[in-house]
């Protein structure tokens, strides 16, 4: 059966999507979702109905559905506020609006395409092989399948990372090919693979998951780790995905960053963006890294004025720099953050990452009434957007909505990769607990934030304020001295940006 609408063809026999005869690579579940919509034009489907129809009732999170909707829209060039093909019906679900015709010839003329996907040379690519269940119980097989899908869904939040849709073709092979063979066949940069094994222990349900990340071209294993999950399948999935992503995502950032640094000659706009992203992910969110990243993002945006991600990320960096006084040119930072956010939103106001960056920037420079709705929309589009969760929590803290601030910041930290940005988010969460009056939780979060980045002065300022309130003057002085070790030119203005003017002045008196 071939389904046609406008310039598109869906060949259900060969599982191919084409526009003007040109093949478009999409993941299997995304293809199935588009086919389901095309078979039922103008009908509104709720998320639960889509899960029943497309995923056959398997364990699937809202993040997976949102990610597939997003990828389906991208495959159909359905961007911006128009939502030409897949429209969101608020409070009800999604509706496919195209006029579809069906034929059973399946032999229309096609433009020949190469066997390997046409990944852009500037964009890193990853193939996720289906995780193998090391036993036959149907529940374990379903869990391995669901875990593979969830990991694929969450990893779509990494900007510019292309996820290959060809992993399913290796599902039934008794022996998977080597990463090098996969690179030669598909052209991907990295391969993620692993296994799932039941691990009974005195009546307690346990599963052991082993995951490997490999540089496909070189054939070298970049990272491997084993995780033990306890509890029923549903609970194990909820805890296992963020646990694995927390360790995996920083390794991907590190691999991509190193590859970009090895490029000879002038870098493209996207490569400059990836370098800036790598600096912030690996070196931490500090005044030096912010300045270096901002310069790279400006160059990226100049090279490609239509690159919404570069503009949005620049707005985030400059907005955070303005809020926490991390920029020497604070007024210019405010103006540039506003200009970059406005431009990014004009370029793409339907991308979760763009909305998350721009919404955070607008809230940080004093426009929470605009920023907060954008952050909510970012989470509606992709509930796995950890940065948007944390940014929304930070905006709620600024608006004195303390309970909501704690909830959103805690969730953002829980689903975030374990990198240095957690030091700043943890500092903000500690302040939220402190304002609520829970000093024990505030101290715990501040100490954890200090542990997460030895080069970030922010959690040390918050910890010093907590110790001072607890009457631990010597511990407060030590925390403050540690902050000055990191940033010798620390000012009252920068301290007050974190803990307020009153606490800041009393800390300076120490």
TrEMBL record:
Residues within the DNA-binding region(s): 1-98
Protein name according to UniProt: OmpR/PhoB-type domain-containing protein
Keyword Coiled coil (UniProt): no
Residue ranges constituting the OmpR/PhoB-type domain according to the UniProt record: 1-98
Keywords, ordered alphabetically: DNA-binding, TPR repeat
InterPro entries linked: OmpR/PhoB-type_DNA-bd, Sig_transdc_resp-reg_C-effctor, TPR-like_helical_dom_sf, TPR_rpt, WH-like_DNA-bd_sf
Pfam families the record matches: TPR_19 (PF14559), Trans_reg_C (PF00486)
Highest taxon in the source lineage: Bacteria
TPR repeat residue intervals: 386-419
């Amino acid at each position: 059966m071939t389904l046609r609408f406008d310039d598109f063809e869906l060949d259900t026999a060969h599982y191919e999507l084409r526009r003007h005869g040109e093949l478009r690579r999409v993941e299997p579940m995304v293809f199935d979702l588009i086919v389901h919509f095309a078979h039922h034009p103008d009908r509104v489907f709720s998320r639960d109905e889509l899960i029943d129809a497309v995923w056959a009732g398997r364990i699937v999170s809202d993040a997976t559905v949102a990610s597939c909707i997003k990828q389906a829209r991208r495959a159909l060039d359905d961007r911006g506020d128009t939502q030409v093909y897949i429209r969101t019906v608020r409070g009800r679900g999604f509706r496919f609006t195209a006029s579809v015709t069906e034929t059973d010839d399946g032999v229309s003329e096609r433009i020949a395409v190469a066997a390997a996907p046409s990944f852009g040379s500037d964009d890193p690519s990853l193939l996720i092989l289906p995780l193998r269940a090391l036993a036959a119980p149907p529940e374990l097989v379903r869990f391995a399948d669901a875990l593979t899908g969830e990991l694929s869904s969450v990893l779509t939040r990494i900007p510019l990372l292309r996820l290959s849709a060809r992993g399913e073709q290796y599902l039934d092979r008794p022996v998977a090919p080597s990463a090098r063979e996969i690179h030669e066949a598909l052209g991907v940069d990295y391969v993620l693979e692993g296994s799932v094994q039941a691990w009974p222990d005195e009546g307690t349900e346990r599963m052991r998951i082993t995951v490997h990340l490999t540089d496909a071209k070189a054939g070298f294993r970049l990272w491997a780790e084993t995780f033990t999950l306890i509890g029923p399948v549903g609970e194990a999935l909820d805890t296992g995905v963020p646990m694995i992503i927390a360790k995996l995502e920083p390794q991907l950032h590190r691999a991509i960053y190193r590859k970009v640094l090895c490029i000879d000659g002038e870098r493209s706009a996207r490569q400059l963006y990836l370098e800036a992203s790598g600096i912030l992910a690996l070196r931490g969110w500090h005044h030096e890294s912010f300045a270096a990243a901002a310069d790279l993002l400006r160059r990226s945006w100049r090279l490609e004025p239509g690159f919404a991600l570069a503009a949005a990320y620049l707005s985030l960096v400059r907005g955070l720099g303005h809020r926490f006084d991390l920029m020497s040119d604070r007024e210019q930072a405010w103006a540039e953050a506003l200009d970059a956010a406005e431009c990014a939103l004009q370029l793409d106001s339907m991308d979760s990452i763009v909305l998350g960056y721009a919404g955070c920037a607008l809230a940080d420079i004093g426009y929470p009434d605009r920023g907060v709705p954008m952050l909510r929309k970012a989470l509606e589009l992709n509930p796995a957007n950890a940065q948007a969760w944390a940014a929304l929590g930070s905006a709620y803290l600024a608006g004195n909505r303390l309970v909501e601030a704690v909830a959103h910041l805690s969730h953002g930290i829980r689903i975030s990769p374990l990198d240095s940005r957690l030091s700043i988010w943890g500092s903000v969460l500690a302040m939220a607990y402190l304002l609520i009056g829970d000093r024990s939780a505030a101290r715990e979060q501040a100490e954890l934030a200090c542990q997460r980045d030895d080069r970030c002065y922010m959690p040390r300022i918050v910890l010093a304020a907590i110790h001072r309130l607890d009457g631990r003057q010597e511990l407060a002085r030590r925390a403050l001295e540690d902050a000055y070790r990191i940033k010798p030119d620390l000012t009252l203005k920068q301290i007050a940006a974190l803990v307020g003017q009153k606490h800041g002045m009393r800390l300076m008196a120490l």
